[in-house]
Amino acid sequence: MASLLLTDPQRDAVFTAIVDTANAVVLPRFQNLGDGEIDTKTSPTDLVTIADREAEVRLTAALTAILPGSVVVGEEAVSSDPKVLDAIAGDAPVWIVDPVDGTRNFAAGQTPFCVMVGLAVEGVQVGAWIWRPIDAEMIVAFRDEGAQLFETTSGHDRRLQVSRPLAAAEMNGFVSFKYLTEEQRSLARLNARRMRRIQSIGCAGEEYLRIAEGRDHFAVFGRINPWDHCPGSLIVEEAGGLAVIGGEAYGPRHSDGPLWIASSAHVLQTARHQLLDSGSDPEDKG
Fold it and tell me: What is the pLDDT of residue 279?
């Protein structure tokens, strides 16, 4: 589907637009934000910076020029006007943009953070780009074409492939405790000891990358905004994993979680049972 939608020159143009945007307005402000360049949105911890806003404006102009007739759903535009989100239900190709994923890290002068762009058609993710500015690495996936990581400094690239451990004690995962229900949060905290490692690093894009690379194996998210998950979910799927809500594959039109990302169906079932089971600690069957 993506191969019919974007030509090779258009794909290259998207890659370049993301890198150029990050170099122009994101990286120069890392550890260099001035007074008045950090603001809040829905809560004191829901941050936005001048880099988020300027990057989204630049990407919106660039992406719609690359693919005429397309529209953009960006995190900051939706924050200003929630009706912008309605475009995901429309017929036009939709660019889904998170101009700075990991804003709290970025605002604190810490990593990880990234720039994420997804492309969806009729509610299906068909293209994904995650740019890691500090490492100068781009992760790209197109539906049915696999996922690749490009090291722009060295010129090397490699295909991504998930890893599939069998035992819970071998599984690493990410849990966004803040956005789970109180019951889910309590259970997950209590049962985290059953897994090898549970953490949250405040950057969904980085978490998706680590699962696609095989360094980690699952994630559970309670808050389902398309800009947080549209790019990364496709990358994990194309690396051999899965993204599900309830009993169906995740898509950008979903709005209610929890969303589970996993390297395999077995990992998904094991992690969900081990973390959210309220019974006694079950024997690990491997």
Answer: 62
- pLDDT value, residue 179: 73
| pLDDT of 1 higher than 60 | no
Q: How far is CA 279 from the centre of its chain?
A: 32
Q: What is the pTM of this model?
A: 0.93
Which domains does the chain show, CATH number per domain?
2-159 (3.30.540.10), 168-276 (3.40.190.80)
Q: What amino acid is encoded at 37 in this protein?
A: E
Amino acid at 64: T
**What pLDDT does residue 20 have?**
98
Task: List C-alpha distances in Å: 81 to 7, 73, 74, 78, 226.
Answer: 32, 11, 10, 5, 15
Q: Let me know how long the chain is.
A: 286
Mean pLDDT for the chain overall: 93
User: Is the per-residue pLDDT at 14 higher than 80?
Assistant: yes
**Distance set, CA 22 to CA 126, 132, 188, 204 (Å):** 23, 9, 35, 18
Q: CA 226 from chain center: how many Å?
A: 9
Asked if residues 98 and 205 have their Cβ atoms less than 8 Å apart, the reply is yes
Q: Burial-class residue 229 by CB neighbours within 10 Å (0-12, 13-18, 19+).
A: buried
Q: For residues 89-107, give the mean pLDDT.
A: 97
Quote the CA–CA distance of 118 and 251 in Å, as a whole number.
Answer: 11
Which SS3 state, helix, strand or coil, does residue 137 take? strand
Among the listed residues 201, 68, 46, 212, the one whose alpha carbon sits nearest the alpha carbon of residue 128: 212
Nearest one of 280, 270, 273, 276 to 185, comparing CA atoms:
276
